[in-house]
Design a protein that fits this description.
Residues 8-125 form the Response regulatory domain. This protein is α/β, with parallel strands linked by helices and 126 residues long. It has helices spanning 16-27, 39-48, 65-74, 96-102, 114-125; strands at residues 7-12, 31-36, 53-57, 84-88, 106-109. It has a five-stranded parallel beta sheet with strand order 2-1-3-4-5, with helices on both faces. The chain is globular and about 30 Å long.
Length: 126
């Protein structure tokens, strides 16, 4: 985690509605949020900034969330092991092993459950 009193979270979500919901929830947890609407932007931002956590939709344009996670894990970055929480409206169609095999630490289905999201953010940033 960074030395600052807040947690830096990269939110990778192409839906503005869900992105805004995540921002509102995470602000209550003392998080500073950076957003990306597609997987390539996630990778570009990840190369330039340090984060404590990534919350990543698996169905992103350009580079999907699973592939973006694989690229992050395979990178030579000092942050290649950053915690990544996958989110998806289609998670029930994918086995848990798809998320874990891609390198995600955890995942949750949409619609997002506030309590579970807060639990996961605390689990990976405290």
């Amino acid at each position: 985690m960074t030395n600052d009193s807040y947690k830096k979270v990269l939110v990778a979500e192409d839906s503005s509605v869900i992105q805004n919901l995540l921002k509102k929830i995470l602000l209550f947890e003392n998080c500073k949020i950076t957003s990306a609407k597609d997987g390539q932007k996630v990778l570009d931002i990840f190369e330039k900034e340090d984060f404590d956590l990534i919350i990543m939709d698996i169905n992103l344009p350009h580079v999907d969330g699973l592939e973006a996670t694989r690229i992050i894990r395979a990178s030579n970055s000092k942050n290649a092991n950053i915690p990544i929480i996958g989110i998806s409206g289609n998670a029930k169609n994918l086995p848990e092993s798809d998320f874990i095999d891609a390198g995600m630490n955890d995942y949750m289905q949409k619609p997002l459950n506030y309590d579970k999201l807060i639990e996961l953010v605390k689990k990976y940033t405290n």
